[in-house]
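Q: I have 339 residues here and want to know how they pack in 3D. Can you give me a structure?
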Amino acid sequence: MNATLHRKLKLIQHHLTVQQTDLQQHLMKILEDGNRQSKDVQPQVVYKQLNVLIITPYMDRELSSIAVHVEQSLRHLVKSIHEIKVIQPLGAYLNTFQTDLIIVLGGEEALPEESIEALRISPIKKAIWLSDQSSVKDLGSVMTIFDYVFTQDPANITFYQRMGDALCYEVPFPPNPNVFYPQTARKQDESDVYIIGDAQPGSCLFAFANHVLLSGKKVRVEGEGWKQYGAFIPVQADEKREWLYNGTKIVIQDNSSIRSMMEVAACGTFQLNSSSSSAGLDTDVFISYDSLEQLVEKFDYYWNQVDQRRLAASRAMTYVKYNHSYLQKSLQLLDRIFR
């Protein structure tokens, strides 16, 4: 009996030894895989440890206002923010403060040669958030010094990529909350319909301009090709868009920028947008059309259903407020650079 018991104990001991060896090998493999992954995967940057320098416009009032909102938003996301004007020498700052990221805002006001050279030789990550007010060609001399380029218009991305090795993304400025918000319009700014887009033969807007649904309505138009429609009121360049958006009942846009759509939404005004314009936005929130028949059908419906029109406008306004704020866009900027 003792011999039998001894053999069983030896067998159990052997199995335990084999299992222990297998377990050790398995643990070693896990550790090796973990070490290999840690070498392959770059550690994530903690935004709250970043020191950011913003170079802001000196003369442009609108961009200066945008710069204030960007700076305030970034203060919630990073460790520290330092702001200098475009006319201030950059080299002296870089020699004084520890900086992890440089953001040039606007791009319309030329950087001094001293600052351009300082940026060129600096190893710090550099980004420019363009307003796209200047011609693309005017930016060629400085575009090569940036690692990241952010534009308002996706159509410009190809041109910017040709100018250098920077990574280019579309990140439009959010609506200025101090300008674009629901307010009572002045009498002279009121209209029934505000059309934004070119009246090109064969387009939906061109065909819709002659539709009976617009008969007897006060229509403002912004774009090319509208001179033949004498009854429509052309929008002048110096007119305040925030007043016109608040003063109309329906805005119709075709091939407009996302920024324009967001500014209309921020005013709490109902809008119909072509499907091509709505790319990048929540199409469940923004009412779109992709044919003349759809434009006619949806315009007729929302013109007569005032409550539905207001509900759709409120949904779009809420969506823009919480999903396209300066805080959200600033975070998107950091994610594009560090993620």
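Q: Anything worth noting?
A: Residues 4-9 have pLDDT under 50 and may be disordered. The longest strand covers residues 51-56.
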